[in-house]
Amino acid sequence: MTTAVLFGITGYAGGHIARELLSRGVDVVGVARDATSVQSGGATTTVSGSIHDASFVAQVTKAADVVVVAVPSGPVDGKKLIDALPTLLSTLTENGTRLGIVGGAGSLHVAPGGPRLVDTPDFPAEYKGEAQSHSDVLDALRESDTTVDWFYVSPAAGFGAHHQGTATGRYRIVNDVLLTDSEGDSEISGADYATAFADEILTPTHHQARFTVAY
Fold first, then answer.
1. pLDDT tens track for 61-83
2. Does residue 39 have a pLDDT over 90?
3. CATH number, position 47
4. I need a surface site. Which of 7, 69, 177, 183 has the fewest CB within 10 A?
5. Domain range spanning residue 180?
6. Are the CB atoms for 11 and 1 separated by under 8 Å?
């Protein structure tokens, strides 16, 4: 049985991914700063802890086949996700564990060779900090010499608790360019994003690479 350790299980993306993995028979260890807030049935096992605690990360991930990171990239209690990356990569290297990261859409290019979404004039100013922090994590992964088999999944621009959508069972993927539909909209539901994420875990096709998911 595949075992996944999921940091950020109480979040929108993390919750959807956990439920999808459970439905496919994956053993999910859900990690949150306060695991008592995880709803019953949301994971096989829940545990309280922080991705910034090196000894905790080493302990909780030692039996994992894959570690999923679905936590905010911006500052939480004064620390960003990128601050945890060196220790996380070192630990997963020792264990030969795969790494999947829930990324952001801001680092996607609006067209081949075009600017990043976050750099366009209409990108909401209040989301730029989080978007840039996500982009920094992706850049750090790409620039590292790690042997960890990582993948980073950017959602469509329309994604999140404010944009729930419904499960359709379909999605498209490309690498670094924002996907839009025939009407110019870029959207993906939490359920369909989770399907794509679980598909990559169970049938790996992207290695040390980013891809994006949208309709």
1. 999 999 999 999 999 889 999 99
2. no
3. 3.40.50.720
4. 183
5. 3-214
6. no
Closest among 46, 52, 48, 87 to 72, alpha carbons compared = 52
* Burial class of 179 by CB neighbour count within 10 A (0 to 12, 13 to 18, 19+): buried
5 class by beta-carbon count within 10 Å (0-12 exposed, 13-18 middle, 19+ buried): buried
Number of domains in the chain: 1
Tokens linked to 22: 């459970």
Residues β-bridged to residue 99? 67, 150
pLDDT at 11 over 90: yes
- Which pLDDT score is estimated for 20? 97
Structure tokens at 72: 């905010």
Pairwise CA distance, residues 104 & 118, whole Å: 10
User: Look-up: residue for tokens 């999605």?
Assistant: 171
Residue 53 has pLDDT above 70, yes or no: yes
Examine the pLDDT at 40 and tell me if it is beyond 70: no
Tell me what pLDDT residue 107 has.
Answer: 97
Q: Which of 207, 211, 192, 210 is nearest to 20 (CA)?
A: 192
SS3 state at 20: helix
